[in-house]
What we know:
- The complex is a heterodimer.
- Chain A is mainly alpha-helical.
- Chain A has a domain at about 30-240.
- Chain A contains 15 helices and two strands.
- Chain A has helices at about 1-20, 20-25, 25-50, 60-75, 80-105, 110-130, 130-135, 165-185, 185-195, 200-205, 210-235, 245-255, 260-280, 285-300, 305-324; strands at about 150, 155.
- Chain A has a two-stranded antiparallel sheet.
- In chain A, a hairpin with a 2-residue loop joins strand 1 (about 150) and strand 2 (about 155).
- In chain A, helix 3 packs parallel to helix 8.
- Chain B has helices at about 40-50, 70-75, 95-100, 105, 110-115, 120-135, 155-165, 185-200, 210-215, 235-240, 240-250, and strands at about 5-10, 15-25, 30-35, 55-60, 65, 80, 170-175, 200-205, 220-225, 225-230.
- In chain B, strands 6-7-8-3-9-10 form a six-stranded mixed beta sheet, with helices on both faces. Chain B has a four-stranded antiparallel beta sheet with strand order 2-1-4-5, with helices on one face.
- In chain B, helix 8 links the parallel strand 7 (about 170-175) and strand 8 (about 200-205).
- In chain B, helix 3 packs across helix 6, helix 3 runs parallel beside helix 7 and helix 6 packs across helix 7 (about 155-165).
- Classes of the chains: A mainly alpha, B alpha/beta.
- Chains A and B meet through helix 8, helix 9 and helix 10 of A and helix 2, helix 3, helix 4, helix 5 and helix 7 of B.
Amino acid sequence: MRKWSRLVGYVVLIGLLLIVPQFVRDPRWMHLVIMTGLYIILAGGLRLIMSTGQVSFAHAAFWGIGAYTSTLLVMRLGVSFWIALPLSGLVGAIVASLIGYPCLRLKGPYFFLVTMVVGEILRLFLTNSVDFFGGDAGISSIPSPNRIRIGNWAIAFPYRSVNYYYLMLVGLFVSLFVYYRLERSRFGMICSGVRADGSLSESLGVNVMKYKLTAFVVGSLLASLVGSFFAHYTTFISPGFFTFNESTIMLIMVVIGGLESTTGAIIGVILITVLTELTREFSKYEIIVYGAALVLVFRFAPGGIFDLYRKFISRLRSHRASVA
Amino acid sequence: MLLEVRGLTKYFGGLAAVREVDFDAKSGGIMGIIGPNGAGKTTVFNLMTGVHTPSSGKIIFKGEDITGCKPNMAASKGIARAFQQATLFNNKTVLDNMLMAFYLESKFKLRDAIFETSSVREREEEIKRKAYEVIEFVGLGGMAEKPVKSLPHGHRKCLGLAMALAVSPELLLLDEPVGGMNTAETTNMMKLIKMLEERGMTILLVEHNLRAVMNLCKRIVVLNFGRKIAEGSPEEIRNDKSVIEAYLGADFRAA
């Protein structure tokens, strides 16, 4: 019975998401919806990494690595977007392994410091290499994805087409499926054990390094895939998009929503996106809004908003049980 | 011989925490390590489980040199450990702690997480059943759903032991198993340890409660300032001059 009602819930949700373009006709709003979806994939990946107790400040950098890899493959080598997309994910995963393998052994804040440096190196590298990476000005007129044919159907991707929304949706479904399966299986349980007490986990036979590395590589891989899509969708990228500031915002999204679950990350993304839109006129003071939100969350819900909600529900249930 | 320790030495900077310690443990039976605070007892455990790498010396387990292997490798080779401070996953329930501990046996793969096949689900059920069994065995039956935070010290220690058992060890290291317990809890824990011995498990324990040590152990190793100063049966240790001088005190024999 419960299983059925849940299934119906999923179907309704997917149906609603499919007809979103019918209601959101303004391209500016459509762009916002697509970006929210991309941020959910990004923040979900960061949550996965953080669920093992490590904070990556290079998350935006991996987004950038994906974007630049894909752009260069398509523009310089004439590779099709559909091949450049998985290749940029692969490049992201390789870079993540190379950084993670030596550095995830570091205890305390050192991994976080290393990833901060990685992000900064990438930015400096991109801004100083004008000939190859376009320098500070970035790269513009990135070609759209090639059309795909399925039998008699042809799906094309002209600038700001609604098809980008559906492509994003496919990516979102796949990533959320991966995130939730990882979270709710033994893998997620062991990750939270590694976060709570690494040496106890080790004494029980858990290869702590393997879990940290897997989470870091999977999270970074998905961020790189988002980067590839982002580049061909917006047709313009520059080093300024993928900096420390972006990583900070993603981190704030995860912390505000709640680290314990992917649902927390989704809530964080939506909340911050809405807050940003509401305060667009004072965007200079954006960081103050984030700061205030962080302080409020730390003070009243250290486990994030989703954790607060879960506690409220379980208290309500036990209250009902005691009344009955 | 299940375990052979040869010339085990560990320096922390200039300080020798463990110096040239040798001892053997036969399969089956309980062996005790005693000595004053700072004698290097816990360091010996840390060296055996790979938390620290020895400065020199060898640890041979089941004929295989395991010197310097990582803690998770030591666990998968069959050496489990219950911690002194009853280290648990504090934000989880008793059952969840147990499930975490059963990780080793579950041979879990990343693809199992993403594609939940029926064999994966069956295995999860099997693990759950085993977890309840061990919880029952250590006397925590009916507390499976309780958060670990709310458990009294004695129960926490029992759960720590249960989690070590989940690794299905051949050699079980207990760091002060009855430390900080009241009389009833101590008696209960001693009964548990004896039951494990009867099941053929080899147990190595560090303990300050001498009544428990003398009662449980067939052999005792005494450490002082990182060196082994004596080894023998409880009777021999009780009458050993250097042990009385270093640790037991002159009035122990009388008591």
